[in-house]
Specification:
Layout: E1 2-7, H1 10-20, E2 26-31, E3 36-38, E4 43-45, H2 48-55, E5 60-61, H3 69-76, E6 82-86, H4 94-97, E7 104-108, E8 116-117, H5 120-126, E9 131-138, E10 148-155, H6 162-185, E11 201-202, H7 218-228, E12 235-238, E13 241-251, E14 253-255, E15 261-263, E16 272-275, E17 280-283, E18 288-296, E19 302-303, H8 304-310
Parallel strand pairs: 1-2, 1-6, 2-5, 6-7, 8-11
Antiparallel strand pairs: 3-4, 7-9, 9-10, 12-13, 13-18, 14-15, 16-17, 17-18, 18-19
Length: about 325
């Protein structure tokens, strides 16, 4: 099939690479978001998709919008059979959806209709889901509301992170995309309407969400920390300094340095209950958060054990993270 690809981040770049590796398809052009300023130097940076496309010698288009007549005429000139979209980040107006012979299909990182929207990977882990997957859908004017063409599921492991789950979904999505394209080309695809009554929305991650609320249950905080990982690392403030919480788990008790156990029920939310050589234990609204990996401002991520080796008094029982009620 003659394909136009549209996507932006690493997730999308991996699916573009899968198409490049499949000789049965012809890639006509790649659409990705305009270069953005990033990093401390605020230098213009190309998207991962642009890097893959450039390495393959493909034409790259980076319109700020696809709503203009000029952008739509340029896209129409490619005379594509189908447009494959994966985490593109730009709205496709109805005129664009109707341009390719087989329309536009999307690789979505959830089992629709659950977790429509921008952050399906993170929201699935944060909610405690035990299963997620990939949906290849026919795009329509709504937000991830189109008919489902193919689905593939995978389990969410108990200690799954956003990064590890995204990697699993990339592999699943690459296979699902190629299968769906083959079925479309052969006229074997079966479209299934979504059940809107079962829909949920995966809101885009908000910077304010990264601040840990110690009144929440420890289990919920642990899931959020694992879910957000590199996308939007969670943090807390201790002694006026922001501290990223890289890795943590939940429990019901906190062993003190002499081996006894202390209940979080008698402590204030955000209070450090105990410090040992491997972790700190912090009281939450329900349960205890066991933090074993952190990143101080301007530093690198490290195990709590390594931090305490260099700064033995950095954490002390009785200290309290700011923001707790």
């Amino acid at each position: 099939m003659r394909i136009i690809f549209a996507g932006t981040p690493e997730f999308a770049a991996a699916h573009l690479q899968a198409l490049l590796d499949d000789a049965s398809h012809e890639l006509l052009a790649v659409y990705t978001q305009p270069d953005r300023r990033a990093g401390r130097g605020k230098q213009l940076a190309a998207s991962p998709v642009k890097h893959v496309a450039a390495a393959a010698g493909l034409p790259v288009q980076q319109p700020a919008s696809l709503k203009t007549i000029e952008a739509q005429q340029q896209l129409a000139a490619y005379n594509a059979d189908i447009m494959v979209v994966a985490a593109y980040g730009l709205l496709l107006p109805q005129a664009v959806l109707e341009l390719p012979a087989f329309g536009c299909i999307n690789v979505h990182a959830s089992l629709l209709p659950r977790w429509r929207g921008a952050a399906p990977v993170e929201r699935a882990i944060e909610a405690g889901d035990d299963t997620t997957g990939i949906t290849i859908m026919q795009m329509d004017a709504g937000l991830d509301t189109g008919d489902m063409l193919l689905t593939a599921s995978c389990p969410i492991a108990p200690l799954e992170t956003g990064d590890s789950l995204r990697s699993k979904l990339v592999a699943l999505g690459q296979t699902a995309l190629l299968r769906a394209l083959a079925q479309i080309a052969e006229g074997r695809v079966i479209a299934t309407a979504q059940d809107n009554q079962r829909a949920s929305y995966a809101h885009k991650l908000n910077k304010a969400e990264a601040a840990l609320d110690w009144q929440q249950p420890a289990q919920q905080l642990a899931r959020k920390i694992r879910a957000f990982t590199s996308a939007l690392p969670c943090y807390a403030v201790l002694d006026g300094q922001r501290l990223k919480i890289v890795s943590a788990s939940a429990t019901n008790t906190a062993a003190t340095t002499n081996g006894t156990a202390k209940s979080a029920a008698t402590s204030s939310c955000g209070e450090i209950l105990a410090v040992d050589k491997n972790a700190i234990r912090v009281a939450c609204g329900n349960g205890v958060l066991v933090i074993d990996r952190v990143q101080a401002a301007g530093g690198r991520a490290m195990a709590v054990a390594d931090l305490l080796n260099g700064k033995p008094g950095y954490f002390q029982a009785g200290m309290r993270f700011a923001g707790a009620a």
